[in-house]
Amino acid sequence: MPLSTEEELRAAGVALVAGSITDLAGVTRAKYVPLRRLEAFARSGMGVSPSWSVFCVDNGIAFTPNVGVEGDLRIRIDPADLRIVDDGVAWAPGDLTDQYGEPADLCTRSLLKGVETSLRARGLTALVGAELECTILAPDAGHATTDAWSPYGVRTSLDRSAFLVDLTESAERAGLGIEQIHTEYGHDQLEVSLAPASPVAAADSVAAARILIGRAAARHGLRISFSPVPFDGEAGNGAHLHLSLADDDGPLFSGGQGPHGMRPAGESAIAGVLQTLPDLLGVYAGSVLSPARLKPGNWAGAAQCWGLENREAAARFIAATPGVPHGANIECKLIDPSANPYLAAVAFIGSALRGIDQQLALPAEVPKDPAKAAQPPPMLQTDQETVIKALETSPVAAELLGEAVIEGLVAVRRYEIATFGALPLADTTRALRLAWSC
């Protein structure tokens, strides 16, 4: 469970405290202090260059007109958020602030806190759940196994039982709510589902889970890739988010007279998510590797539509049934691990709120494979240059994310285009296989 006092942490064997942010490229970066400096980490924070936010996947820096070599920001943590993530090490998510403690323009965690404020102002509550897909690797970053793979198979999972038990135990110690673990469709692929939580807590859990999965794997001589496409021609990894919304009268996605029990505000929320997908795809899946995953037939949500339990739709609706313990929700399937989880949640919830505010009408459901529909819905344009240009010029993105975040995110992704865009996909997958690993 989270530990907050120096005495509790010392008794638990903690010697080192980490505080991290996730940058605009989706990479988690941290600073560490001895336990005796915990109070300073919380009060004053640890200094970082503003360029941290525009570090790139290969450690290049995408300077912008407003982010250069000058200035100083701080990472501040709340000791109440500390979790033990490795032997002797406790970690907490950090806020990026100026030297006076005010949120920095590029603090994505503070931006998500603002979304929680917007929810409260509307009399709404939100729960967000996450599914993390990753690929288990050998120490040399190649395939962990050469045996025939059985998706969801007992053999393929029990062959890694020591690692999975270690992961489960370490997550329990850290107070991380793992709901389900299974081996996935792709060779050596693993999926970990997390319990729903408030938006900031859910994004924090994604960051914690990626660290815990990586550390548990390392203890068993393995490595973990959170790349959207670790190997050319093989299965990609998603980072799906689920969203439920409620007001004083109950859930918005159930209890009504609309499709599958939706209430009018729930219909508008889904309509808002769908309407803004082309504008916000650069947030959800904007990396140089994202287009290789986001294709029809990959169950990645490449179609701009919704459907009940439709895994090819960008928005998969899960109805309130006895088989759904957390109630009706909507899943954004196209998010991949290159996305900053705080920004992805901002975009997802923000677009849903925008739909509610504008009372948007829900488009017709696509109940089957969109590619085989009599009137196929539009497929999302996934070319990275197109995606980033849409983000850069979108009034919706400017409204939800702010100019500073868009400028930085566009710079980071354009750096990827310039550096990797002309390379064969096999070379790029190899170069970035561990870029998002923790």
Automatic annotation (TrEMBL):
InterPro entries: Gln_synt_N_sf, Gln_synth/guanido_kin_cat_dom, Gln_synth_cat_dom
GO molecular function annotation: glutamine synthetase activity
GN (gene name): glnA_2
Record SUPFAM superfamilies: Glutamine synthetase/guanido kinase
Protein name per Swiss-Prot or TrEMBL: Glutamine synthetase
Pfam entry (one): Gln-synt_C
Source organism (scientific name): Mycolicibacterium agri (Mycobacterium agri)
Family: Belongs to the glutamine synthetase family.
Limits of the GS catalytic domain: 108-438
